[in-house]
Structure prediction request, 572 residues.
Amino acid sequence: MFDVLIVGGGPAGISAAVYLKRFRLNIVIIMKDYGTLAKTDHIENYYGFVEPITGTQLVENGINQAKRMGISIIEEEVLNIEYFDTFTVKTNKSEYLAKTVLLTTGASRSGLKVKGFNDYVGKGISYCAVCDGFIYRNKRIGVVGAGEFMLEEYEVLKNFTNELTVFTNGVPLSVDIHGATLVSEPITAILGDEQIRQVKTSLASYDVDALFVAIGTPSASDFALRMGAFLKNNDIEVDETFMTNIPGLFAAGDCIGGFYQIAKAVSDGAHASVAINKYLRQKASL
Amino acid sequence: MFDVLIVGGGPAGISAAVYLKRFRLNIVIIMKDYGTLAKTDHIENYYGFVEPITGTQLVENGINQAKRMGISIIEEEVLNIEYFDTFTVKTNKSEYLAKTVLLTTGASRSGLKVKGFNDYVGKGISYCAVCDGFIYRNKRIGVVGAGEFMLEEYEVLKNFTNELTVFTNGVPLSVDIHGATLVSEPITAILGDEQIRQVKTSLASYDVDALFVAIGTPSASDFALRMGAFLKNNDIEVDETFMTNIPGLFAAGDCIGGFYQIAKAVSDGAHASVAINKYLRQKASL
Prediction:
């Protein structure tokens, strides 16, 4: 059982980790990739670097900084987190238990950049099978995605209907999915009236009553939503100690909104670490 | 006239500067020394550096980062700031005008570590000649300090009394001060009843009605106090835009309190820059 399991190895996650390690807590970082920062190749406004640095280099520095301090980094994809007094974090390879979880997976939640998509979010388009799947019992449900995250949602949705279609949206399927109805061409539009009615692709139109989005890797908001944490717009809502409404579930960095800058994420991580340490000490003394 | 004059070249000041420069504002940094950070020789909890870095190295990195971006850094000691619609910043060598000022000079405000000192702060011990000098008109006033800052306070206090004694507290006098009564041995205690009554040194005791403290370099709190900005304990009080109660006077980093960490100062600076930019744009559009 870890004291703190950090999801995400960017500025907020590593910054928190180096503080938490110095508090002598048993921590681990689980990260999948370098995230949004890797897309930036010219950072010159983060204090302390004379020459501009690439996002990839900065993330690598952070990882090596953490490793040098003896912090474990596991390169797996977190697919689900369950909360029941403690946290069970399920990845594509294993399961981990932790007393607290800190979400620092950045801001991105992937939607579809097609006509009509934004109009039907909440009107048949959902980001959470566990939350909304039962609403569409025995209805025609589509799920968009091509990897582990989609499979996770698919398995949940199978409990509700037999009319389940996977839309890979032109992305090669990276998981085995037996017996599913597959649509592999790109989605071009979402149609409907008050509710979503059709998914239009480059080849055909498909009638649906609901469309679940599980593209790429789950974002912090996705985990939070599944556990019943409050969101504000798409950001995870935290109090002044960076804790969500779920005891022991913390979030920091871009996923809680605000100023999308490295400086802010790093500061968030440092502040969250102090709050987590305090939370664990208080719990231990009960 | 500068758009923004930043006092202090540590993490908060440089972080703000690099953002402000990218907002294409006309800015300048005035700094005296490397501050508190230079006393730290092993920083391993600031994100992005694989190996521990010294405070001196980090401050130098910051200065070179700013210079590389074409930001002017003036190495002078700010002695006073006056506010009258715009700001006049007086240093040991010159005067500068600015539309806004950002204070990022760190937390330190130097008191005396001697018996009785803390008991008489506010009871005859003052940090601001302009604020409190008139209370002690024609009384026996002491002023503690040995440099430019002391001289600045001395000149103000001369207007109120002829019984003025300079206590250099064992520090060699670094300024010319004609006709002053000088006590150069170390102060060992402050004595009094309801109010301060005596300054005790290693050699003698001196009767005083007030003692003004002007040791070393003025801190951000000292400037703020002189301009009528609100303090909270010793920290400068700012709103959510990092602005004090004085329009155009901003503060960030350790001098506004909170978590005394590089990460927090850097984040403060970034946030303050956005607020300053907005403030200037709004003023320009009036």
User: Anything to note?
Assistant: Residues 118-213 of chain B form a domain with the FAD/NAD(P)-binding domain fold (CATH 3.50.50.60). The two ends of chain B are 18 Å apart (CA to CA).
